[in-house]
Structures are given as C-alpha cells and as structure tokens.
Amino acid sequence: MKLGPRRGRLLLAAWFAACFVFSAIADPVWLAALLAAMVLVFWKQASRAARRTAVSAVPLTLFLILASWGWVHVVAQQTPDLRAYAALALRTTLIAFTSFAVLARVDLLAALQPWPTLSRLLVIILGQVHALRLLVTESLLGLRSRLPRKPRALDAIRGAGGITATLLTLATKNARDISDALRSRGF
Amino acid sequence: MHIPDGFLAPTITLPAYAISGPLWVWAARKHFGPNQVETLPAVGALTAVAFVLQTIMIPVPGGTSTHLVGAALLALAQGPLQAFVCESLVLLVQALFFGAGGITVLGVNALAMGLLGPLCAWLVFRGLRRAWPRLAAFVAAYLGMQVSTLAVALTLGLQHHLSPAIFPTPLPVMFTAMMVPSLTVTGIVEGLYTMLALRLLERVRGKVAS
C-alpha cells in the first residue's frame, strides 16, 4: 500500500540520506547486516525489490567486479583484496534494494505535488520514454523486415539518423499534447 | 558508462551535488519558469530521445557492450545548459525507475555526462563549424564522448586514491577498460550519429521554416 504525500516525502528524504550513509560504509559485515535489516523493514516489498535489484544492479556490478578482479590478478600479478570487492557488491545491492523498496511504497507524483514543474516533467518524460521505446522497437522490426539478412551495426547506424529525426518530430508533438493536457488539469 | 550507486563515497558525491545543484537551479529558472510554455515539452521530448538512445547498446570486444549518450546532439541543437538539464533528467529517471546509475552519484554522472562532455562538444563545434561544416559535428561529438568517459574514469581513480576500501580497482584498470571502447567504438558511433542526426534536424527545421 502506498503512503500518503506527507509520509511519502518523509520516507523519500530518509531514503536519500540513508543512501549517502550506506555509500560511506566499507565493512562487508556491516553492509550485510544492513541489507538484512532493510529486507526485514520492507518485508512486503522484498521479493519484488529483490527481483528488480537482481535484474538491474547485480549483473553489472558482478561483471565489473569480476573483470576488475581478473585484470588485477592476471595482468598486474597481484592478489586483490576480496573484502573490498565484497563490500562494493554488497553496497551496490543494498542501495539498489532500498531504492526499489522505498519507491514501491511512495506515490511519487503525490509526493512531488509541491513541485508541479518536476511532476509535469516526470509525467512527460515517462510517457515519452514508453512511446519512443515502442517506436524504436517498431523501427528495428521494420529494418529487419526490409533486409534479407540480420541487420548489422552499419545498417543500424545508417538508419539511426532517419529514426532520430522522426523521433524528435513525433516526441516534440506528443510532449506538447501531454503538457497541455496536464496544465489544463491543474498541474 | 554510468557510475552505479555504492561505487563512490560522500567525499566525492556531496561536492558533486554542491556543484551541480546551483547549476540545476540556475537552468530551471532560466528555462523552466512558469511562463516557459514551449520549453518544457521540448525538453521533455529531447530528454526522452536521449533516454531511448541510451538503451541502444553497442557491442565491443570482450563480450561487453557500451551505449550512445546523445548529449552532444542535445548540446549542438539546444545549447550546453539545456543538454545538462536533459541529461540530468535522463539519469534521474534511469536511477528512479530502471536501477541504472544511482541517486547518490547523480551529481557526478550529471557533471561528467551532462556537462563536461556536451560543453566540450559545443565549444569544439563552435570552433570548427566554419572551417569544416560537415566534420565539425563528428569531431565535436567524438571529443565530447572522450571527455565524459575520461571524467568518469578519473573520478573512479580518485575514489580509489582516496579510499581503496570503497573502490578497490586502481585507475590504470578503469582507464583501460573505459577508454579503449570509447576511443575505438562508442566515440566513432556517437560522432557519426550526431553528424547524421544534426544534418537531418537542420533539413527538418529548414522545411518547417519554409
């Protein structure tokens, strides 16, 4: 269940401060304990937040850590400190999990009510992102259907300019429509 | 290319917020006041386009991938200050809803990818466009991309220097891992894309004007 605007704003402020505190901790034991605490605090959102964290933050962090660790081990012939890498992975996971769990409890648009320009920008951008991602997917499908083989990087680059011009023209028109509609509803 | 949350300590992220905060306020007052009816939709649209561009990944040797930024095109089309705001909004949306980048590192990422790179691209473009009107956009975007990548690599290197316990990977590793794909692949693709898209935009604008 989402929190009310006032409590939502308080939770957002607490989350913002907590992220900075988390980013200053280097002890993996403390980070693991805090991660366990956050799972308990946001128990209801835990499975969804964990799934989103596992998809978005964990693979990139693990890749960066493994690549860096391997490079230092093989090329520089040193044995890197595993505790520091473990802390890095835990810190990133902790902040990502907390962010997803907090944002699932907050109605962002209601919390941002005192700042109507920011609310309007967020609505426009999110609406546009969704519309443009659909357009890009359709453009790529169109490119594939016109070529007898799988499109290569050069084909995508050739088509990128044309797609961008269409995207910009369409996006500006859509954004103006959304903005007018929001303004007429008091945003 | 974004720095994720947890990679930098507040010793770097808070000063970055202190620098980018006033810039956001200044840009908001200049471009997003209550009377700026036309600016808001345009910025929303350009931000969304930059966002979509950043989802198009380019494979690089080694099994990983990198992505376009699109901020150079924004800077050349709208100016560096609007590009900074647009890129900051892209980073905010990515941090809030998609788990890319992060909220503590928003200031750092915005300064590196939204200000330094686009500002460099804008300055280079202004300097070269009379001498080489066609190549100027390519060179500007290529150099802008390198400046952004270099800024990100140096920031991570600085964090390692300040506290290896927070970021254990030394600068030479980060520098190589980030600059090689940027110099050989991403920069070239960003340059080509910016050059072609800018020419098309000029044609579209010319048609609209006539």
Give a concise summary.
The complex is a heterodimer of chains A (187) and B (210). By secondary structure, chain A is mostly helical. Helix content of chain A is 81%, strand content 0%.
Account of the protein in words:
Chain A starts with a helix and ends with a helix. Chain A is flat. In chain A, helix 2 (28-41) packs parallel to helix 5, helix 3 (46-56) packs across helix 5 (82-105) and helix 4 packs antiparallel against helix 5 (82-105). Chain A contains 8 helices and no strands. Chain A has helices at residues 5-23, 28-41, 46-56, 58-74, 82-105, 108-111, 116-146, 153-184. Chain B is mainly α. Chain B starts with 9 loop residues before the first helix and ends with a helix. Classes of the chains: A mainly alpha (187), B mainly alpha (210).
Number of domains of chain B: 1
H/E element string of chain B?
Answer: HHEEHHHHH
Q: What is the approximate shape of chain A?
A: flat
- In sequence order, what are the helices and strands of chain A, one letter per element? HHHHHHHH
**What is the strand arrangement across the widest sheet of chain B?**
1-2
- The end-to-end span of chain A amounts to 24 Å
Report on the biggest sheet of chain A.
Answer: none
The count of domains of chain A is 2
- What's the β-strand tally of chain B? 2
**Quaternary status:** heterodimer
Quote the average pLDDT of chain A.
79
The radius of gyration of chain A is 22 Å
Q: Give the % helix of chain B.
A: over 70%
Strand content of chain A: under 5%
Distance between the termini of chain B: 40 Å
Count of extended strands of chain A: 0
**Second-tier CATH architecture of chain B:** Orthogonal Bundle
